[in-house]
Known about the structure:
Oligomer: single chain
Structural class: mainly alpha
Distance between the termini: 38 Å
Helix content: 55-70%
Order of helices and strands: HHHHH
Mean pLDDT: 90
Radius of gyration: 17 Å
Amino acid sequence: MIKNTQQRIFVFLRLPLLIHWITIIILTSLPSDSLPSSGLDDKIEHIIAYFVLSFFIYFNFYYQDRHLILRKYSFLFTILFASLYGAVDELHQLFIPGRSCDFLDWVADFIGVIIGSLSARLLLYYLRETLENFFNKKLEPLTKKIVK
């Protein structure tokens, strides 16, 4: 059993984000003829991938102590950051054989980001006490000034 707060945050928040993000980078860097088929529609795959990405980004922003502004505005920063990454990822695919930059793919990414961010926020709202107990981390309300 993992008892240390930082270890729990790493194992349950940071590591899944890292693994998922690396998976996205690998899959979007493969030429189109090398892509594995999931049997799902392309746009659904984008929505799911960015749902998971934004879900973990939200919690990583929220459960970090270095930059309080990221925690205070974790919902907004998650949407901005994950959406920007989706756009950069689409542009990156211009350089991959058989791939293209598709605006509708980015729209699907953005939909996944919104749903993932909202889901994370709702989960935090309804399960705050449970999550604080699990991560052994009671977060103080952010009513103080962020800039010192």
